[in-house]
Write a structure and sequence with these properties.
Strand content: 35-45%
Number of helices: 3
Strand order of the largest sheet: 3-6-9-12-11-10
Number of strands: 13
Largest sheet: 6 strands, mixed
Length: 213
């Protein structure tokens, strides 16, 4: 029943989701109290990992210990769920041709992918500033076009935001650095694809006609 194939459709969706938030910028004061435009780094990883790195300085040598710099954004894929409302006839087929090679595949399977985006800043002003760079684009959804495979060259994926929270992480004595975390949860209505068959393009056919007269 099962045969190996590699479409990378889920990986391409993760990359497409990250591309939406790559390059977010914010204004920050420098040591001379002048405004500077800073690009916020984006990294894949769970929230718990970044909170631990923010509260516990890591060691790069026996004498040097550093803390992760802020602001920073992390994201992760939380899960996926089959979406029966977008189901199509599974026997539907799609074909395409590239050069002398023909591609064939049955109908894609709809899944909803849940993502979490976490923004870490030193204070509320910086976090709210990044929030303003995100929220206006989801009204109610943002469309990302992704090339999934040779048959599906441009698939429009709607990404919707359905929850957001703003919290302050501060525990322990005054030596512990405080930071602000805003968390956004998104759902991307995408697809997964089965094995894509390929073979030579059919250019000639032979038809035998039986004469019954």
């Amino acid at each position: 029943m099962f045969t190996h194939f590699k479409n990378d459709s889920v990986r391409k969706l993760v990359v497409g989701f990250a591309s939406v938030f790559n390059g977010i910028k914010m204004l920050q004061k420098d040591e001379n109290n002048n405004d500077r435009l800073l690009e916020v780094p984006l990294t894949y990883g769970p929230k718990e990992k970044f909170v631990k790195r923010l509260t516990e300085p890591s060691s790069i040598s026996d004498k040097t210990r550093i803390q992760i710099s802020l602001p920073r954004i992390s994201f992760e894929l939380l899960g996926l769920m089959y979406d029966p409302t977008r189901k199509m006839n599974k026997l539907n087929q799609k074909t395409s041709k590239t050069g002398a090679t023909a591609f064939q595949n049955y109908a894609e399977v709809p899944y909803n992918f849940t993502f979490s985006l976490n923004v870490y800043t030193r204070n509320y002003d910086e976090n709210l500033q990044i929030m303003e760079q995100i929220l206006p684009y989801f009204s109610p959804e943002f469309i990302v076009s992704i090339k999934m495979n040779n048959l599906h060259q441009s698939v429009d994926i709607p990404i919707s935001i359905f929850n957001s929270t703003l919290t302050q992480e501060y525990e322990g004595d005054f030596s512990i650095r405080r930071f602000i975390v805003s968390t956004y949860q998104f759902v991307a209505r995408s697809y997964v694809y089965g094995d894509i068959k390929q073979g030579p393009d059919i250019r000639d056919i032979t038809i035998n006609i039986l004469d019954q007269s």
